[in-house]
Each structure stands twice: as C-alpha cells, then as structure tokens.
Please model this.
Amino acid sequence: MLTLLKLLKDGRFHSGQALGAALGISRSAVWKQLQHLEADLDLSIHKVRGRGYQLATPLTLLDPAEIASQARACIWPVMVFDSIDSTNAQALRSIDKGVVAPFIVLAERQTAGRGRRGRKWASPFAENIYYSLVLRIDGGMRQLEGLSLVVGLAVMQTLRESGVRGAGLKWPNDVLVGQKKIAGILLELVGDPADVCHVVLGVGVNVNMQATEEVDQQWTSMRLESGNTFDRNHLVASLGMMLQRYLNRHQESGFAAIQAEWEQNHLWQGCAVSLIAGVNQIDGIVMGIDRQGGLRLKVGNVEKVFNGGELSLRLRNDS
Model:
C-alpha cells in the first residue's frame, strides 16, 4: 500500500492502468489499495474520470539519505518507520536489541504517540516530526541535569531559524507560540544513571498539521504560524545539528552554562502560575530555574524549588 503512496506522492494525476502496471496488480486491486490509503492514513485522494488519481496534497516522505546529505557534520544514524506505536517505544526496543547509540528513530505515523504524564500525542501520517534520539550516558549524573530543558532550547532555536519567530519555552518540556503548544519533549531513561544508562530524547513537532480532533489543549503548527509548508527532511537535519550543538555545550560545561539562556526564553518568567502535583496545587510566581533545571517558584514570601516528573504548570487567571 505504501508503495502505491510513493507513486502518488508527487501530487500529479496517475491513471489506474499506469499504477497497476507499476505495481504488477489489476486496476481493481489499485482501487482497493486507494480506499485503504484513504481510510487508514486519513488521506484525501481525488478521482477524476479520464485522468486517474491524485493526492489532494503532495507528500514529501522522510528519507534517511536526504537527511544525511543535509545534516553535514551530524552523522547520527537514522531509522525511518512508516508506522509504529511510538518512536520512543521503538528506541527502547532497539536498545534492548543491542543497537549501538547514538541513533535516531523517526516515523511517518505513530499509532500510540505519547506526551508527558501519559497524554496522547496526535501523530497524523507524513505531516509532523516524530523523533527520538538515543544517547549512551557513562557514569555521569551531571550529564542528565536539565537535559530535557536543553533539548527544548534546541527545538525552539530550530523553529525560530525555520521562520517561527514567536516560539518560546514553557517549563519543563514544552515549546509554545503564545499559549499554543507547537512541540513537546519526552525523556525516558533505562539503565543505571550512576553507572551506564541510555536516555531517549523524544521530540514531537507540529509541522504541516492544519486540523485534528485528537488534541485536548490549545495547539498550533509551523504551517499555521507561517502559512508555509515545510520539508520535514530539512527540519530533521536542522534539528539534529542544533541538538548536537547544545548537547556538546551541556556535556562540556554542564547545565549551569545554559541556565541563563533558557530563562531568557521562558515565556512564563515572572508570571503567576499554579503547579499541579497529583491532587495538590501550589500557587506562586515563576522566579526562574536552578542549576539543575528545577523550577524556582516564589510561594508566599518563600522561594521553593520543584523538579519535573509528574508536575504540570499552568498560568493563573491573574497572570
């Protein structure tokens, strides 16, 4: 079925006879595959008598060779899957199988994409970036300090360089434009952080998505913000180079060297917020972050520090 999609991805009309000849199947079999494409991948296909079949919107599929050619100095191996449960889950399976880090897992679609706190991540086919980078960490808890915030900075800078100038950060793991989420980060750790472990840096970016009913919060996409469609291969290459730059800084100098830059780009700096921890709510003013990436919150007249995990931050109505 995906072989048929690759024949149609240019957005031009293709006759049923030509498609059948290319695939070695009958025209009726082509018709059945087209129906499956529409139903399974939620794609719109125009059918015009005498002209054939045409994708309503041309597709650019992820291509490891194209990504490598654009990434220049970034040489992390890339695996691309047409459809998997989630790139983080696939990354964890690859670690179990002994795949040597670093490496990147990408997918055209996720059937069980996940955000923080178990939330579903909308993952339509060939519209966004679903990305997991696996790193091996040898005996250094310091290398994990503030790591999700470092990844958020790299994602934000990639978006800005691609034309989404209003992108900013929300503690701990979101990238927003205004109050709308455009990207999120989910880190997962396996192994012993005090000895040898692997960390999966999961990144989801809304790129060309224009509509979905699967998101229960305010969201936006690069296309909605700019009015342009984006080449996801180019974006993946740009993200890889940006991540490499920030991860190198983090490894060499620790999170403290990046702390001020993160605070400068925190959209909720100085705002009145509510910090949700299970059934508990803590109201305060955002003062910044500490040298390990914890949130500094002024609660009453006392400054307290909170770390990630199952915490959720929300703006208060009086902010």
